[in-house]
Specification:
Layout: H1 3-11, E1 24-28, E2 40-44, H2 45-52, H3 65-68, H4 74-86, H5 92-99, H6 104-110, E3 140-142, E4 146-148, E5 153-155, E6 160-161, E7 165-166, E8 173-178, E9 181-186, E10 190-192
Antiparallel strand pairs: 1-2, 3-6, 3-10, 4-5, 7-8, 8-9
Helix pairs in contact: 4-6
Length: 194
């Protein structure tokens, strides 16, 4: 049985990353030289082009990895991990990477690509006014009245902001909903609620 047919049977004739049914082809994960069912995945031309050429990457297309990263196929897990790492500057892939589990051998394979950059730079930490580390999903309380620019209201001291999200490229900013408006808040004006 041809490799493409084997992969097509495994994936129900859909892209193993985004589930598209158009223009499917075999993609062998580097550094493998010989294509096998274990080291190859079936992907659409859209995924293939973006994997091969980082310049044409559309980050929103890769939100499909939210589903495919849970595939029982190690090669799909590895490709999902690699793409999430490539896109980590977008913010949302970091949360998926934190949830993702790869066994030791699969993680070693995922890191074996020359494309993987060393992310040993210090991790950005968001700290509240008391120095407590903030996490996405936390609830914080405003410690002073804040004039919300562009929304024409004042967020009052003591207002709880639930389910915050972190601005990944700026440790001094978080986002949250106040009076139905999504706003950016400086971390020095909030206190984490226990």
């Amino acid at each position: 049985m041809a490799l493409q047919e084997q992969l097509s049977n495994r994936s129900n004739s859909t892209c193993e990353l985004c589930t598209s049914e158009d223009s499917l082809s075999v993609y062998t994960l580097p550094p493998a030289e010989e294509a096998t069912e274990e080291n190859s995945i079936l992907i659409c031309s859209n995924c293939h082009n973006q994997i091969k050429d980082p310049e044409v990457t559309d980050p929103n297309h890769w939100r499909c990895l939210n589903e495919s990263m849970w595939s029982p196929v190690p090669a799909v897990q590895v490709m999902a991990w690699r793409m999430l790492n490539r896109l980590r500057g977008e913010g949302w892939p970091v949360e998926l990477l934190e949830m993702m589990y790869l066994d030791e051998e699969t993680l070693k394979w995922a890191k074996s690509s020359s494309e993987i950059i060393d992310n040993s730079e210090p991790e950005i930490k968001h700290l509240d006014s008391n120095g407590a580390e903030l996490q996405a999903g936390d609830t914080v309380v405003l410690i002073k009245d804040l004039n919300v620019k562009g929304a024409n209201f004042t967020a009052k001291r003591g207002t709880p902001v639930r389910n915050i999200s972190l601005v990944y490229d700026n440790p001094e900013h978080i986002e949250g909903r106040v009076e139905g408006q999504q706003i950016v808040i400086l971390t020095k004006f909030v206190k984490k609620q226990n």
